[in-house]
Amino acid sequence: MKLFLTVAILMVSLGLTAGNIVLEGRYQQRNIFVINGASPDGVGFCTYEVTVNGLVTSDEINSQAFEIDLSIYSFKLGDPITIIIKHKDGCLPKVLNPGALEPAPTFDCNKIECTPQGILTWETAGEMGKLPYTVQQFKWNKWVNIGEVMGNGSSGKNIYKFQVTLTSGKNKFRVVQKSYEGELRKSQTCEVLSTTTPVEKAYDRKTKLISFTAETSYELYNVYGQIVKRGFGMSIDCTSLPKGEYYLSYDSKTEKILRK
Known about the structure:
By secondary structure, the protein is mainly β. The chain folds into 3 domains: 4-101, Jelly Rolls; 108-194, Immunoglobulin-like (Sandwich); 201-259, Sandwich (Immunoglobulin-like), CATH 2.60.40.3080. The protein is 0% helix and 55% strand. The chain contains no helices and 21 strands. The strands form 5 sheets. A 5-stranded antiparallel β-sheet has the order 1-2-7-4-5, with no helix packed on it. Strands 11, 12, 14, 15 and 16 form a 5-stranded antiparallel β-sheet that branches. β14 and β15 (184-186) form a beta hairpin. It is elongated.
């Protein structure tokens, strides 16, 4: 379940207003940390109650900062959790780690390989929750995202497949997972040699059209390294580009283009 953080303004029976911060996700063996702050009326602190799956916590919340201890509930890894932080009107506690209920990238990649037909297969174990795998291909001197496969989230053996498009020559691939908080985990790489005929290009100065001998992924950069054209196909229309020097990455190569 994807974590989200919402603030809902609720009316209470006395006609006063109060707020709820709602955290939803699954238990990842991590606690929640909150910056509380003083109450706007000068009495006590902003938060007045915290519940975990409907149970009022026993945590000490009458302080400038507090921890919601989830270890005391005997949760199992992946159990659903809803935390409600109830606070007074006119103030808002700050959750320091809202991604704590999101799965972290913990997979171990036991094997990754690619066939000459472009079937990429990888085997993993140790996943703590469902996170997407981003498939990356190393080309044009960088790792390029080429697809995504949702992880099963099982701690046991998982096997995934993805159809890639091979460039001419040597191809290198890996898969990565990224957590809600930006933590990145990478697999080892695999290589496969393609027998695909190298793609060639031609530039027609009259039509301002770059044409390829076969369909290919491409990126066209200006001299500042900014991508001005990106896609997949047999040609690139350059009529809208200002005159100047460009760099074209396609197939497995990068070449200079002069737009006159």
